[in-house]
């Protein structure tokens, strides 16, 4: 059964009526194809109208949709000969960050992603995509390996943020994130990051400080969640919609601010309505971006990456 968001209630009602008519047609042999076609056309119009004017808070809800494709969907759909790599060689394996070696359109690559999971068991296994220090140290290890062999790195970011537990802080969460960002910036091969759902705080930047940052149309990318921002500014999480508006966390806002490089269009109604199409669109965008970056020398990549992030600071200062 399809999961509908709060603002999709009119769509849910139409979808229910269409399903009811289909069941009646199959059970009684009634010829109500015209009624079904009429309601289907109405639902398509309603869907198009709804998604053409989403607010930042509604986009936040879409980015968090439980049926949205996860990192493992993109890896499975885009990477062949995938060999997962595990552990930070210091403390433990962190299932919140997955990664390994594989081939993207025949080219050897290193691929990583923050994985939220798709059901209760897998969400618990992957800690809802919130990595601990060992996850970021694993990411750094894989980045260093990719740099050594000049392998392009593809990352898929979908996390509300790094795990905020006491145990994570005790093991050096901030330092681990900083070292992962450092490894991204010093990488001697191209790094293309794609924000596929939530891009939350340093937990996202740890895998997204790349040569090119792509972002799905209805994804979000912010220094803090709308609820967290509302709790700090207004001491009221119910003000999250206002916080989402102020944070400028949508793909359109971030592209205008030149904090991301490309917006990847989603299927009508969001990536969760057609996962295969969403994966294909991301793959095409990555291929087009990688073709240009692959021609640069390691020295040119590092210099260009450095200038890219320094320019963001200059824009903000100005």
Number of strands: 8
Gyration radius (Cα, Å) is 21 Å
Low-pLDDT runs: none
Helical fraction equals 40-55%
Structural summary, described in words:
- This protein has two domains: about 10-55; about 60-315, 2-enoyl-CoA Hydratase, Chain A, domain 1 (Alpha-Beta Complex).
- A hairpin with a 2-residue loop joins strand 2 (about 95-105) and strand 3 (about 105-115).
- Strands 1, 2, 3, 4, 5, 6, 7 and 8 form an eight-stranded mixed β-sheet that branches.
- The longest helix is centred in the first third of the chain and has 20 residues, at about 10-30.
- The chain has helices at about 10-30, 35-50, 55-65, 70-80, 120-125, 135-150, 165-170, 175-185, 200-210, 225-235, 240-245, 250-255, 275-295, 300-315; strands at about 80-85, 95-105, 105-115, 155-160, 190-200, 210-215, 220, 260-265.
- By secondary structure, it is an alpha/beta fold.
- About 50% of the residues lie in helices and about 15% in strands.
Summarize this, please?
This protein has helices spanning 9-28, 33-51, 56-63, 71-78, 120-125, 133-148, 166-170, 173-186, 201-208, 226-233, 240-247, 251-256, 275-293, 298-317, and strands at residues 79-84, 97-104, 107-114, 153-159, 191-200, 212-216, 220-222, 262-264. With 318 residues, the chain is an alpha/beta fold.
Keywords:
globular, alpha/beta, 318 residues, 2 domains, 8 strands, 2-enoyl-CoA Hydratase, Chain A, domain 1
